[in-house]
Amino acid sequence: MVLCNGSSLNKKATFRVYLQEILSGPNATLYEVARANITSVSPTNFGQFLVGDDFVTTTPDPNSMRLGRTQGFVAFSDLDELAIALTFTFIFTDGPYRGSSLTIAGRKLVLGKNQEIPIIGGTGGFRLAQGYTISNLVASTPISVTFMYDFFVV
Q: Residues of the signal sequence (predicted)?
């Protein structure tokens, strides 16, 4: 997993993390903040806007080591497909990338597999980062969702 030292700049890195999203309850990490007039009748939730502050872990187990958080927002932005436009910043507070962050932004099919999202920048050891991440749904319950993110930083 460690191909980039948190203090090194502009190093290549390939690694996997898990995003733990809690959808409801007192510890929810994702909240709706706006919706369009069409959202309630749209089969694709068009116009719904959500903000999240999710946990990033080393394994799919939500109780595994926390590497940091993912903060950002999603907007359901397609009238025909269940798709979102997203911007997330992965903020690493522990592990080999502690003190660094990576920001991704792009379009993602909600139910799609191997969704490629561009890395648009970073801080710390990932300053001026480029590359992409591949996202996949790992687990889903009515209360929580776990996504796997494979990062390819160049």
A: none
